[in-house]
């Protein structure tokens, strides 16, 4: 039901309540339409219009009073605000093309159809609002912010500008514990695979206390990193910060209506200001652009991780200088298959302990620069990913070192074998950050070298049984280095060329 506009006798915005039934949403929608001071129902020049998701929070956001302040200061031009309340929020908001991994957002497509084919035509029929997409803005908060971005990105012929407060850009195809990588973020993928329309503009906001989650342990909360990564995707398409993108980071800002209401003047001036200049009406400096800070944090974290690994490698190398080279095992001290695949990977005259220390540096150089997404690469279906290869090397090194310890201590109990194919899926390598795996790699290598360095000549020649085969401690030291060399060769020849 549409109520005719009644002019107000006192200055300020007027809030009109409107109800109509949506076929797409299968519910009655209770709109609140906020009209500017001096609203003219028969105005010849149409008003710009803002479609605001989560409209039920209109007063919690203090929007009417904020608008009155902006109008008094002439900080915005008159526009019509259509506040659309949420229904089944977690299903109607999201990305229209795809639900997330828990099937949330399953009705986002219907919500988009509601906007396109019911709400916007209704508003245009009852209010003098513009049909020029440059004068149509869609905005939302958290999940409805994601929906606003998705709508503007895919429907530029209708609306060219979006405002997103603490957007749920983490929206993903896969759970964090099910092999997630950043490539699973749905909106990022849609932007990467799409093309912007001329004139598209985006206002994006986060708060430094939006959340505490930091899935890759780089010191930046996920909401900020996801937003920044989305900005990077937009920039890859040629959009420019300042001209096409405004990013606002609220220091101390939380994921709530108080923070969003606090920063609303910035957004409203960006969307409807008569000039490009934005007045600071918050009484403080609320904008903290984190691009440089994010890059600094990432570099600092990477430096710390590299320093730890280098320290471990340095400890191992320094210790090796005090240890005589270990001579090769004699035939009969190991199973025949060692000669086929592993022992030849330790060159004649080489010290296996020095090779193990060098291999740690080689792994750091080859694998350290990769992203988590790149480290999920495999060269053939069914083959291990790079992360899984690293965990296999860690598992095997621990087992070889354990066997060497048992035999060196005079333990003559037969030691069982292990099924590397069964170990792989249980290791959960693809669910772990690459930096975490590499840190563990350095720690295990330091422990292995310390153990191997402690063995006397007599202990190195002690024999035992492992996997139903006779083997010496000396052979286990050599096969640990040879086994790693075997897999490093495969990484260089079959995996890394795919990343070029």
Reconstruct the topology from this structure.
Layout: E1 14-22, E2 27-35, E3 49-52, H1 63-72, E4 80-83, H2 89-92, H3 108-126, E5 136-141, H4 143-154, E6 161-165, H5 186-193, E7 201-209, H6 222-236, E8 245-254, H7 257-272, H8 291-320, H9 337-341, H10 352-367, H11 386-408, H12 420-427, H13 434-454, H14 457-460, E9 463-466, E10 469-472, H15 473-495
Parallel strand pairs: 3-4, 3-5, 5-6, 6-7, 7-8
Antiparallel strand pairs: 1-2, 2-4, 9-10
Note down, in words, how this protein is organized:
Helix 8 (291-320) packs antiparallel against helix 10, helix 11 packs parallel to helix 13 and helix 11 packs antiparallel against helix 15. Helix 1 (63-72) links the parallel strand 3 and strand 4 (80-83). The chain has 2 domains: 14-289, Rossmann fold; 303-499, dinb family like domain (Four Helix Bundle (Hemerythrin (Met), subunit A), Up-down Bundle). The chain has helices at 63-72, 89-92, 108-126, 143-154, 186-193, 222-236, 257-272, 291-320, 337-341, 352-367, 386-408, 420-427, 434-454, 457-460, 473-495; strands spanning 14-22, 27-35, 49-52, 80-83, 136-141, 161-165, 201-209, 245-254, 463-466, 469-472. By secondary structure, the protein is of the alpha/beta class. It is 43% helix and 13% strand.
